[in-house]
Design goal:
The chain has 250 residues and is an all-alpha fold. 76% of the residues lie in helices and 0% in strands. The protein folds into two domains: 118 residues; 126 residues. The longest helix has 26 residues.
Amino acid sequence: MNIPPILILLLLGHVLGDFYLQWNTMAKRKITEAKWRWVHGGVYTLCMAFVLFIGVQFSWPLLLLLLAASLAHLAIDAVKKFIPKKRFTVDQLSHLVTLVLFWRLWGECLQVRVSIFWEFEALSTSAISVVSGLLYIVKPVGELIEHGDIWDFNKGKNLDALEDYVQENARSASKMIGYLERIIVFILLLNGQFAAIAVVFAAKPVTMTVARFADIENSGTTAARAEFYIIGTLLSMISVFAVAFLLGLI
């Protein structure tokens, strides 16, 4: 499965503008304050323009594509506050669907700059695809798991004790572990090192148990922690394979 280069550029511009150049204050306040939506919209437009103008030969359809993507992003962010459940998933799916639609309307007639993207025709594992894949498996996947749209990590027994245990520093450390885990698995996957992926998957429970056994045992939340840990790890692993497959890297 190979995604067309123009669509990959759109996805790259989206992940940069909606995740890596959007700080936490902006992400929270844009839901209720129009000023912050416009600030985010401006940053998003600049990211998208930077990626598209570097990778695509200039034409009027390119400007229409950029304008449509930016305005649609603003509109989706404006109505996001009215979504009662699974807000993050619905929001991102809406953005991705509109990008695919606009690509079909204006993107298919655009021409990439051959000097930069000549390898798209010959290689399925191009540099842009790999970079896009790495960017998507780190923050977007991490936020998808953290928001609990796939699995609610706040439900179940011993919730109060579990929340007491998981302090802010522990959350940050767990998030970083997830980032590094997905990056390692992604790199191994691109090189076909499936046995090494199995080793990483098997070694993580051992190292985590040794590091946290005393705290988990004393907290009285062993069962809940074990379940959440397994579910989170599996979601993290599956996401890497899904992103790599969708980008045509496997």
